[in-house]
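Ticket closed. Logging final result for Stage 0 sporulation protein A homolog.
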Amino acid sequence: MENQSKVLLVDDDRNISELIKMYLEKEGYECTQVYNGKEAIDNIDQNFELIILDIMLPIINGWDVLKEIRKKYATPVIMLTAKGETFDKVLGLELGADDYMVKPFDPKELSARVKAVLRRYKSLEAAKVLNFDKLIIDMDKFQIILKGNIVEMPPKELELLYFLASNPNKVYTREQLLNEIWGYDFVGDSRTVDVHVKRLREKIDTDDVNWSLKTVWGVGYKFEVK
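Final structure:
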């Protein structure tokens, strides 16, 4: 069940950390607290199902912690940023964040975001392997195999490809893809999708197959199967 998940809280503000812990434990989550970036990296191998990660951390900042997480793990990450801090949503998403919240925030909203992120992630975990011409999208192993070779890509690129390929020939707007893959609507940040599609094409565009990642001009994108 969702509310039995292990959550890693990474925030040097102990009051905020305690507040988050209190609300999540009331929902039944098991929370572990650490207070700097080094402690976060030291603990990420403990099978957490979600990481709540502050950006402004001592020793190692949240951006660098997120980069380290994404080198090995697809664990969903919700980023926290204080109001007034510079936070580039697109950068966070491109580095592999799944959601973000600005402090101060309503703990009930954070709890709802946690549930939504875990629900999306677990639906991906339960996914079956997709097979196309010379292409395997394996969400169990979280990998892409093209013409017998493993193609390395960050989790969000893989999730985007999986979503489109799960619905072949269906056209999605950038806003729909943002909502489906990142879980909330962005106004004016549709370039996030464009960047991910561009990177996907660089990795999987190939001749002699009956599928392709297509741009539908003025609308969005689709995974076309002939």
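The chain is about 40% helix and 25% strand. No further action required.
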